[in-house]
Amino acid sequence: MKLELRGITKRFGSFTANDHIDVVVESGKVHALLGENGAGKSTLMNVLFGLYEATEGEILIDDSPVRFNGPGDAMAAGIGMVHQHFMLVPVFTVAENVALGDESTRGPGVLDLETTRRRIREISDRYGFHVDPDALVEDLPVGVQQRVEIIKALVRNARILILDEPTAVLTPQETDELLGIIGQLRDSGTAIVFISHKLREVKAISDTITVIRRGKVVGTADPTASTTELASLMVGRSVMLSLDKAPAVPGEETFRVEHLTVLSDTGQRLLDDVSFGISRGEILAVAGVQGNGQTELTEAIMGLLGHVSGSVTLEGRQLVGRSVKQIIRGGVGFVPEDRSTDGLVGTFTVAENLVLNQYDRAPFASGLGMKPAVIARNADEKIGEYDIRTQGGQINVGTLSGGNQQKVVMARELSRPLKLFIASQPTRGVDVGSIEFLHRRIIAERDAGTPVMIVSTELDEVTELADRIAVLYKGRLVGIVPGDTPRDVLGLMMAGAASDGAAPHTTDQTGTDHD
Fold it and tell me: Does the UniProt entry include the keyword Nucleotide-binding (predicted)?
């Protein structure tokens, strides 16, 4: 089955998300759509899947124009989509999830789940999925849940399969398994649209690569193209993909977490007896698949959660029990994982957001009054220093792109003397060129003697920045290993397996037992 997108344009008011995009996907081929977050890739696929109606252009299947009024029409035409955020009901079984939306019955009001179970087993056996039709989805690992999504599409006889950022929540081993599955699907004649911003994976699986930047196709490439070439196409200029950094020279350990435990309102352990330390002048990167306690770790340290026990000390001073304001004023810089909700006030100006943590202190205030001229001058300096793309400091920060909003947060947090710097997903939604810049700023903070903790689900980022790597799994610390630990070892740890050289979850990097 051949798919062609011809001149697809999608506008939201005055904003053009897709601008006259042409793409052809052949049967038995993997066609990668490569681009930064916000480039328009997912919007384009939502048009294809009938979730959005194109403003202009047409979709052709086997050279015949088609029109979709919703996902049902797209699925009926042989198109399946696995969304970045899975569309599964956790308390339903695999078979019940697969049957949703395409229910067959064997009598009034009685679902025919046995036919669905048989089809799941057939597909699972054919591709080596190892999926139990009667397993509850909430009990399945993330990688298996993704296979359920693929099975949903294949049960409906999809001949064109769209995979939207399919490796975002997978361990390296699960990613390799998925790429193997995609290869099998391709060999069986399925046309695959592989949407990603990860160069390594695109090169590994693609037959053809189309690069999208700011809603437009800016080029096509062969998978033999270098990562540097692909990155340059993505951002429109040459970029350095490897970070040149000197080895860390750790000093005194000034930040210490001991037996940190976080409970949910219902008593569930979200973080379980975690202990580690960070020294001056080193970066500890916390790795793990999203949802394994990373968020709770940073928020507990920052005083954002209740039901916290254990100890968190900075230069000997206890942070547990202190307010967020007290912790920040105590010299902690914090970049939250959700900048729009927790890092910025969208209706405030860029200038105001740049002093949110110091608005009532000199030099930005005197007594009860703020100093607008000083705040404006600070904004001009930081906009230039961090290359924040804005028309000026008086523009509302909510109108900036995600990457530029992230630069505002980073600029604010790194613009004062720090005793500890914590950044959660520091480059999420940031283009390759800006990632290079922000990584250099993080390294510079380390080299200035600050203890740094980075939390990232991007394993490339973890290995690029880390002097040591701590891996969390289901709220527990699997171990702490050197920054040059191989990816396959880290992947096993992210799946819960301790590795040789990794400290068990009850020990710190010094080997001291804390049980």
Answer: yes
